[in-house]
Design a protein that fits this description.
Layout (H helix, E strand, L loop, with lengths): L7 E6 L3 H13 L3 E7 L2 H11 L3 E4 L8 H11 L4 E6 L4 H9 L4 E4 L4 H12 L4 E2 L1 H11 L16 H11 L4 H8 L3 H15 L4 H11 L10
Parallel strand pairs: 1-2, 1-3, 3-4, 4-5, 5-6
Helix pairs in contact: 7-9, 7-10, 8-9
Length: 225
């Protein structure tokens, strides 16, 4: 029990029992995680979140009784400190967008390797967002099509420095790392993020990252000014 004290507590929500069990074994073996519960339905997952208060819910989008995105919104509303990371095989761009706008901290494709999965879980626990390159690459292509591009004059306008900060948020960097990259104090970075989030109408880093990709779909880096 003592050895599990400082491990990240996980709830695995996946309707395929074999996949769920395999994930649990692999993640426990890393020594960084303790799987406190498993669920194959949204109803069971909700009950376990309420009882167990896990640090992270590793959640599939498609569940037999309810959408994982809907469950994500409920968990976020009731337990805002619980991190939610989608792990799915659905290559659905609109689902990715609805997932992060629904409050998810990250989105992973099931082709991800174990090392990257471990990195993603630790990233969201530390307050960062994590968007799987395999998934976001598809979304970037989708956003480049004329029908899905944002309006030429979006209802929000970020300053050049706010754009630089959000660009680094979209890369998954911490406030400290952003400060180093832009020669700013961590407090100043927090202020930029606060004001940028207000303009974007978001509260989560993953949501801000997706909106940044919608604003500047042709580049992963900050546009020139």
């Amino acid at each position: 029990m003592h050895r599990r004290k400082n491990r990240i507590r996980l709830l695995l929500v996946e309707d395929h029992e074999i996949v769920r069990m395999a994930l649990g074994v692999l993640l426990e073996r890393t020594g960084s995680f303790h799987v406190v519960g498993e669920a194959g339905t949204a109803a069971n997952a909700w009950a376990q979140v309420s009882n167990l208060k896990p640090d992270v819910v590793l959640l599939d989008v498609k569940l037999p009784d309810r959408s994982g995105v809907e469950l994500c919104r409920d968990i976020r509303a009731a337990y805002p400190k619980t991190r939610i990371l989608f792990l799915t095989a659905l290559p659905d761009n609109e689902t990715l967008l609805s997932s992060v706008t629904g409050g998810a901290d990250g989105y992973l494709h099931k082709t991800i390797d174990l090392e990257s999965l471990v990195e993603a879980i630790k990233a969201v626990v530390s307050g960062r967002c994590y968007l799987d390159p395999a998934a976001t690459g598809s979304v970037m292509g989708w956003l480049r099509t004329p029908s899905s591009r944002p309006d030429a004059n979006p209802p929000f306008q970020l300053s050049p420095q706010e754009c630089r900060v959000i660009a680094l948020v979209a890369e998954g960097k911490t406030n400290k790392e952003i400060g180093v990259a832009l020669s700013l104090s961590e407090k100043t970075v927090k202020n930029y993020i606060f004001h940028a989030f207000q303009k974007l109408g978001v509260t989560r880093r993953a949501h801000a990252a997706v909106l940044y990709m919608k604003m500047f779909p042709d580049t992963a880096m900050l546009p020139s000014y």
